[in-house]
Amino acid sequence: MRNLLATVSYDGTVYYGFQTQPGGNTVQDAIEHALLQLTGEAIKIHGSGRTDAGVHARAQVFHFHTNSIIPLERWRLALNGRLPEDIRITEIIEVPLEFHARRSAKRKTYRYSINGNRVPDIFVRRYQLHHPGKLDVEAMRQGLEHLVGTYDFTSFASRHSTKTSHVRTILEARLEVEQSELAAGSHEQGVIHLYVTGNGFLQHMVRIIVGTLLQVGEGKRTPQDMKSILAAKDRAAAGPTAESKGLMLWNVEYDFSSPASEQSEWTDTEDHEDDE
Protein backbone atom coordinates (compact mmCIF):
# COMPACT_ATOMS: atom_id res chain seq x y z
CA MET A 1 0.00 0.00 0.00
CA ARG A 2 1.25 3.47 -0.91
CA ASN A 3 0.12 6.91 0.26
CA LEU A 4 0.43 9.55 -2.44
CA LEU A 5 0.03 13.28 -1.82
CA ALA A 6 -1.05 15.36 -4.80
CA THR A 7 -1.40 19.08 -5.50
CA VAL A 8 -4.15 20.08 -7.91
CA SER A 9 -5.18 23.35 -9.59
CA TYR A 10 -8.71 23.80 -10.85
CA ASP A 11 -11.11 26.34 -12.29
CA GLY A 12 -14.17 25.80 -10.11
CA THR A 13 -16.62 27.68 -12.34
CA VAL A 14 -18.65 24.70 -13.56
CA TYR A 15 -18.24 22.47 -10.50
CA TYR A 16 -20.42 22.16 -7.41
CA GLY A 17 -17.34 22.39 -5.22
CA PHE A 18 -14.39 20.15 -4.46
CA GLN A 19 -15.93 17.53 -2.21
CA THR A 20 -18.26 14.79 -3.48
CA GLN A 21 -21.95 15.46 -2.89
CA PRO A 22 -25.26 13.92 -4.00
CA GLY A 23 -25.66 16.33 -6.92
CA GLY A 24 -22.40 15.14 -8.46
CA ASN A 25 -20.16 17.16 -10.77
CA THR A 26 -17.46 17.93 -8.25
CA VAL A 27 -13.69 18.13 -8.59
CA GLN A 28 -13.32 15.09 -6.34
CA ASP A 29 -15.63 13.08 -8.62
CA ALA A 30 -13.51 13.92 -11.66
CA ILE A 31 -10.25 12.99 -9.94
CA GLU A 32 -11.59 9.73 -8.56
CA HIS A 33 -12.93 8.80 -12.00
CA ALA A 34 -9.49 9.46 -13.51
CA LEU A 35 -7.88 7.30 -10.81
CA LEU A 36 -10.31 4.47 -11.56
CA GLN A 37 -9.48 4.67 -15.26
CA LEU A 38 -5.76 4.67 -14.54
CA THR A 39 -5.49 2.02 -11.82
CA GLY A 40 -8.71 0.01 -11.92
CA GLU A 41 -9.08 0.76 -8.20
CA ALA A 42 -12.09 2.53 -6.65
CA ILE A 43 -9.97 5.09 -4.81
CA LYS A 44 -11.35 7.70 -2.41
CA ILE A 45 -9.26 10.86 -2.14
CA HIS A 46 -9.01 13.00 1.00
CA GLY A 47 -8.60 16.75 0.49
CA SER A 48 -7.00 19.35 2.73
CA GLY A 49 -10.49 20.84 2.93
CA ARG A 50 -13.35 21.57 0.61
CA THR A 51 -14.21 24.53 -1.56
CA ASP A 52 -17.74 25.62 -2.46
CA ALA A 53 -19.33 25.83 -5.88
CA GLY A 54 -17.57 28.32 -8.13
CA VAL A 55 -14.47 28.62 -5.92
CA HIS A 56 -11.10 27.95 -7.55
CA ALA A 57 -7.82 26.47 -6.35
CA ARG A 58 -4.26 27.29 -7.26
CA ALA A 59 -2.93 24.57 -4.95
CA GLN A 60 -5.48 22.27 -3.36
CA VAL A 61 -3.89 19.19 -1.77
CA PHE A 62 -5.24 15.67 -1.39
CA HIS A 63 -3.92 12.22 -0.51
CA PHE A 64 -5.00 8.73 -1.48
CA HIS A 65 -3.98 5.13 -0.82
CA THR A 66 -3.23 2.79 -3.72
CA ASN A 67 -1.80 -0.62 -4.43
CA SER A 68 -0.66 0.50 -7.87
CA ILE A 69 3.02 0.09 -8.74
CA ILE A 70 2.97 2.91 -11.30
CA PRO A 71 6.27 4.83 -10.92
CA LEU A 72 5.89 8.11 -9.07
CA GLU A 73 7.14 10.21 -11.98
CA ARG A 74 4.39 8.90 -14.28
CA TRP A 75 1.34 9.71 -12.14
CA ARG A 76 1.01 13.39 -13.00
CA LEU A 77 1.06 12.96 -16.78
CA ALA A 78 -1.14 9.87 -16.65
CA LEU A 79 -3.82 11.54 -14.53
CA ASN A 80 -3.81 14.82 -16.44
CA GLY A 81 -4.44 12.87 -19.63
CA ARG A 82 -7.66 11.56 -18.07
CA LEU A 83 -8.87 14.76 -16.38
CA PRO A 84 -10.97 17.63 -17.80
CA GLU A 85 -8.89 20.55 -19.05
CA ASP A 86 -9.96 22.75 -16.11
CA ILE A 87 -8.38 20.36 -13.55
CA ARG A 88 -4.63 19.75 -13.51
CA ILE A 89 -2.39 17.80 -11.14
CA THR A 90 0.79 19.84 -10.62
CA GLU A 91 2.74 17.59 -8.24
CA ILE A 92 2.61 14.12 -6.67
CA ILE A 93 4.90 12.84 -3.92
CA GLU A 94 4.89 9.74 -1.74
CA VAL A 95 4.34 10.24 1.99
CA PRO A 96 4.13 7.95 5.05
CA LEU A 97 0.92 5.94 5.34
CA GLU A 98 -0.21 7.90 8.41
CA PHE A 99 0.08 11.26 6.62
CA HIS A 100 -3.30 12.99 6.11
CA ALA A 101 -3.82 15.93 3.75
CA ARG A 102 -6.15 17.72 6.16
CA ARG A 103 -5.03 16.68 9.62
CA SER A 104 -1.34 17.16 8.78
CA ALA A 105 -1.84 20.68 7.37
CA LYS A 106 -0.36 23.61 9.30
CA ARG A 107 -1.57 26.71 7.47
CA LYS A 108 -3.90 27.50 4.62
CA THR A 109 -4.07 30.67 2.52
CA TYR A 110 -6.94 32.01 0.45
CA ARG A 111 -6.82 34.85 -2.06
CA TYR A 112 -9.82 36.96 -3.04
CA SER A 113 -9.51 39.22 -6.10
CA ILE A 114 -11.51 42.39 -6.74
CA ASN A 115 -11.24 44.21 -10.06
CA GLY A 116 -11.66 47.90 -9.23
CA ASN A 117 -11.33 49.18 -12.80
CA ARG A 118 -14.23 50.72 -14.68
CA VAL A 119 -14.13 47.97 -17.29
CA PRO A 120 -13.29 44.42 -16.22
CA ASP A 121 -10.74 42.26 -17.96
CA ILE A 122 -12.90 39.75 -19.85
CA PHE A 123 -10.10 37.19 -19.87
CA VAL A 124 -10.12 36.83 -16.07
CA ARG A 125 -13.79 37.57 -15.44
CA ARG A 126 -14.26 34.10 -13.93
CA TYR A 127 -11.69 34.81 -11.21
CA GLN A 128 -12.40 38.37 -10.11
CA LEU A 129 -15.30 40.25 -8.57
CA HIS A 130 -15.88 43.44 -10.57
CA HIS A 131 -16.40 46.51 -8.36
CA PRO A 132 -16.01 49.70 -10.43
CA GLY A 133 -17.09 52.03 -7.60
CA LYS A 134 -14.43 53.95 -5.68
CA LEU A 135 -12.93 52.03 -2.77
CA ASP A 136 -10.81 53.33 0.12
CA VAL A 137 -8.21 50.58 0.02
CA GLU A 138 -6.29 51.92 3.01
CA ALA A 139 -9.44 51.80 5.15
CA MET A 140 -10.00 48.20 4.02
CA ARG A 141 -6.42 47.36 4.94
CA GLN A 142 -6.89 48.87 8.41
CA GLY A 143 -10.13 46.97 8.91
CA LEU A 144 -8.47 43.71 7.94
CA GLU A 145 -5.80 44.19 10.60
CA HIS A 146 -8.45 43.92 13.32
CA LEU A 147 -9.13 40.30 12.31
CA VAL A 148 -5.60 38.99 12.78
CA GLY A 149 -5.44 36.80 15.87
CA THR A 150 -7.60 34.18 17.58
CA TYR A 151 -11.28 35.09 17.78
CA ASP A 152 -14.78 33.70 17.67
CA PHE A 153 -15.68 34.28 14.00
CA THR A 154 -19.41 33.56 14.32
CA SER A 155 -20.19 36.92 12.70
CA PHE A 156 -18.18 35.85 9.65
CA ALA A 157 -19.58 32.32 9.36
CA SER A 158 -22.51 31.06 7.33
CA ARG A 159 -25.78 30.82 9.23
CA HIS A 160 -25.82 27.17 8.19
CA SER A 161 -22.67 26.42 10.15
CA THR A 162 -23.11 23.51 12.55
CA LYS A 163 -19.75 23.86 14.29
CA THR A 164 -19.70 23.64 18.05
CA SER A 165 -16.91 26.24 18.07
CA HIS A 166 -16.32 29.14 15.69
CA VAL A 167 -12.98 30.06 17.21
CA ARG A 168 -10.31 30.27 14.53
CA THR A 169 -6.91 31.92 14.18
CA ILE A 170 -6.01 34.24 11.34
CA LEU A 171 -2.22 34.23 11.23
CA GLU A 172 -1.66 36.75 8.45
CA ALA A 173 -3.83 39.02 6.32
CA ARG A 174 -2.88 41.60 3.72
CA LEU A 175 -4.15 43.60 0.75
CA GLU A 176 -2.13 44.08 -2.42
CA VAL A 177 -3.07 46.26 -5.39
CA GLU A 178 -2.03 45.19 -8.87
CA GLN A 179 -1.95 47.99 -11.44
CA SER A 180 -1.87 47.20 -15.14
CA GLU A 181 -0.17 49.38 -17.74
CA LEU A 182 -3.54 50.10 -19.31
CA ALA A 183 -4.75 51.67 -16.07
CA ALA A 184 -1.57 53.57 -15.26
CA GLY A 185 -2.08 57.29 -14.68
CA SER A 186 -5.86 57.03 -14.81
CA HIS A 187 -8.63 56.88 -12.24
CA GLU A 188 -8.67 53.10 -12.44
CA GLN A 189 -8.09 51.29 -9.13
CA GLY A 190 -6.44 48.14 -10.45
CA VAL A 191 -7.01 44.66 -9.05
CA ILE A 192 -7.16 44.34 -5.27
CA HIS A 193 -5.96 41.00 -3.92
CA LEU A 194 -6.85 40.01 -0.37
CA TYR A 195 -4.71 37.23 1.16
CA VAL A 196 -5.84 35.53 4.37
CA THR A 197 -3.80 32.80 6.09
CA GLY A 198 -5.20 30.78 8.97
CA ASN A 199 -5.14 27.48 10.79
CA GLY A 200 -8.69 26.75 9.69
CA PHE A 201 -11.71 28.46 8.15
CA LEU A 202 -15.48 28.37 8.55
CA GLN A 203 -17.97 28.08 5.73
CA HIS A 204 -18.04 31.34 3.71
CA MET A 205 -15.68 32.98 6.23
CA VAL A 206 -13.36 34.69 3.74
CA ARG A 207 -16.22 35.70 1.45
CA ILE A 208 -18.10 37.35 4.34
CA ILE A 209 -14.91 39.12 5.41
CA VAL A 210 -14.56 40.44 1.85
CA GLY A 211 -18.20 41.53 1.67
CA THR A 212 -17.78 43.43 4.93
CA LEU A 213 -14.48 45.02 3.90
CA LEU A 214 -16.10 46.23 0.68
CA GLN A 215 -18.57 48.16 2.83
CA VAL A 216 -15.62 49.65 4.69
CA GLY A 217 -14.07 50.62 1.35
CA GLU A 218 -17.33 52.21 0.24
CA GLY A 219 -17.46 54.30 3.43
CA LYS A 220 -20.53 52.52 4.79
CA ARG A 221 -18.53 51.22 7.76
CA THR A 222 -15.33 52.31 9.50
CA PRO A 223 -12.25 50.10 9.89
CA GLN A 224 -12.90 50.04 13.65
CA ASP A 225 -16.33 48.53 13.03
CA MET A 226 -14.61 45.20 12.39
CA LYS A 227 -13.94 44.95 16.14
CA SER A 228 -17.59 45.37 17.10
CA ILE A 229 -18.67 42.96 14.37
CA LEU A 230 -16.38 40.30 15.82
CA ALA A 231 -17.63 40.99 19.34
CA ALA A 232 -21.27 40.68 18.27
CA LYS A 233 -20.87 36.99 17.36
CA ASP A 234 -23.87 37.43 15.10
CA ARG A 235 -23.93 36.85 11.34
CA ALA A 236 -26.39 39.74 10.95
CA ALA A 237 -23.73 42.17 12.21
CA ALA A 238 -21.42 41.58 9.22
CA GLY A 239 -21.76 42.42 5.55
CA PRO A 240 -22.95 40.29 2.63
CA THR A 241 -21.23 37.17 1.32
CA ALA A 242 -19.06 38.10 -1.67
CA GLU A 243 -19.42 36.10 -4.89
CA SER A 244 -17.61 32.78 -5.01
CA LYS A 245 -15.79 33.42 -8.29
CA GLY A 246 -13.27 35.83 -6.73
CA LEU A 247 -12.05 33.26 -4.20
CA MET A 248 -9.11 30.93 -4.73
CA LEU A 249 -7.46 28.43 -2.42
CA TRP A 250 -3.93 29.73 -2.79
CA ASN A 251 -1.71 27.47 -0.70
CA VAL A 252 -1.66 24.71 1.91
CA GLU A 253 1.45 24.33 4.06
CA TYR A 254 2.88 21.27 5.80
CA ASP A 255 5.82 20.57 8.06
CA PHE A 256 7.28 17.44 6.53
CA SER A 257 10.09 17.41 9.10
CA SER A 258 7.70 16.59 11.95
CA PRO A 259 6.26 13.14 12.63
CA ALA A 260 2.71 12.81 11.34
CA SER A 261 1.48 12.22 14.88
CA GLU A 262 2.65 15.72 15.82
CA GLN A 263 1.39 17.56 12.74
CA SER A 264 -2.32 17.85 13.30
CA GLU A 265 -3.67 21.26 14.33
CA TRP A 266 -7.20 20.74 13.03
CA THR A 267 -9.74 18.39 14.54
CA ASP A 268 -11.77 15.84 12.63
CA THR A 269 -14.93 17.87 13.10
CA GLU A 270 -13.51 20.73 11.05
CA ASP A 271 -13.46 18.70 7.85
CA HIS A 272 -16.99 19.39 6.72
CA GLU A 273 -17.00 23.18 6.93
CA ASP A 274 -13.41 23.92 6.30
CA ASP A 275 -13.60 25.55 3.73
CA GLU A 276 -15.04 28.21 1.56
TrEMBL record:
Q: What is its EC number?
A: 5.4.99.12
Q: Which InterPro entries match?
A: PsdUridine_synth_cat_dom_sf (IPR020103), PsdUridine_synth_TruA (IPR001406), PsdUridine_synth_TruA_a/b_dom (IPR020097), PsdUridine_synth_TruA_C (IPR020095), TruA/RsuA/RluB/E/F_N (IPR020094)
- Pinpoint the Pseudouridine synthase I TruA alpha/beta domain residues: 6-102, 145-255
> Which residues are noted in the entry as substrate-binding?
110
As its record notes, the protein acts as a catalyst of: uridine(38/39/40) in tRNA = pseudouridine(38/39/40) in tRNA
Please list the GO terms describing molecular function: RNA binding; tRNA pseudouridine(38-40) synthase activity
Keyword terms: Isomerase, tRNA processing
Q: What does this protein do?
A: Formation of pseudouridine at positions 38, 39 and 40 in the anticodon stem and loop of transfer RNAs.
Concerning NCBIfam families, the annotation shows: hisT_truA
Protein name as catalogued: tRNA pseudouridine synthase A
Q: What organism does this protein naturally occur in?
A: Paenibacillus apis
